[in-house]
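User: Structure with flavin-adenine dinucleotide, tokens only please.
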Amino acid sequence: MKIGIIGAGPAGLSLARLLNESGFQVTVYEVQSELAVKPCGWGFPHISGEDSSLLKPFIKDLEDSIVWEYSGYRVYLDGSLLFENKKRKVLGYIIDKKLFLKKLSEGIDLRLRSRARHVSENMIEANGLRTKYDVVVNAGGFYNQKKDLEKIPAIQYHLEGSFEEPEIPELYFDSNLVGYTWFFPENKRRARIGIGGYASVGILEEMLRKLIISKNQFRNSLIIRREGAYVTVNGIDHDLVKDKDPYHIGEALGAVMPATGEGIRPSIYTSIALYKSLKSGTDYLSELKKLDIFNAIDLQKKILDIEIKIDPNLRKQFLMKTPEDLLIKISLGMITKKDLLSLAIRRESLKILLESFADKFTK
Ligand SMILES: Cc1cc2nc3c(=O)[nH]c(=O)nc-3n(C[C@H](O)[C@H](O)[C@H](O)COP(=O)(O)OP(=O)(O)OC[C@H]3O[C@@H](n4cnc5c(N)ncnc54)[C@H](O)[C@@H]3O)c2cc1C
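Assistant:
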């Protein structure tokens, strides 16, 4: 079976790897001249639970691509420290995404510098040539969404400086912004700092610059690169899942954690679901629904929708009163229905969240 994939990000290349190993004939088209050009924080959560078994085909490549390990976190709200955790156990990683994608692409027919277009029934046009496939997959990320899925802007700076505790990433919340700032060190001398949220690029950049000026370790660093992109906060689009020509995976489908912007792991999961569907002739949506991450994305979207509606003061209360372990579970997309119930008992405002979601959340 011949499969044509548009886009060589985590979604496209993880699908290509799985299909290639099962004997499918795969071609991947990538508009850029190299891999991992798209701005990204390169953060990846610690692999545990469902991840350990489902991500098995990718674990070695992920492990080989790890450049830094995080063993704690600091969370700030309106400039004050809210939580600090130095657990001394690994909570997440920075992966060299370019290396990871390169490893996934080994043995794959990858066509760089090839802007591809799905033109008609299972047909891709690239570099003036039309090729017919048995299956075409859109893995073009936010750049190539068939529908206008909800997106927010994100800006990221690459810093060079001296970072005192590079094993501790930091998150900064501002009660006036639905969104947050991340500080992801990659070692003692290099880090990424970025902001994403429901505001204009100008406002986000002003907030980021204010934060940089307010802290010595940021202020004394050099900004060596500035970049920006959109993050899809729509959640998985249930209509696009039904499309078969082309199929959609990864961010092109909306598979990003809406409240945190984590997209690498969810993209790989959609590839696993589509791979199973193509291999066994099962329904793609049913395969997606079997994954914990499908519910987690839905839940984060509900939380985000409520965060948008409530006023900054209530948002602040939500962040301050939500127990630390639950906030972290929400961030990592690991929250269960039991966790939600305990949240609702603590906070009247969260009953709204529970009521709007309980009947959909089946775990
Ligand atoms: C600033 C920022 C920071 C982020 N930080 C993190 C993070 O730390 N951790 C995390 O998990 N997620 C993060 N994300 C989200 C994550 O980067 C994406 O969700 C993830 O890369 C999506 O993977 P994908 O394969 O679906 O799409 P993409 O990674 O966007 O890959 C799509 C590929 O398709 C190519 N393409 C598009 N259209 C065409 C076409 N017509 N023809 C050929 N090629 C095409 C693009 O060039 C691209 O290479 C961040 C996002 C942003 C914007």
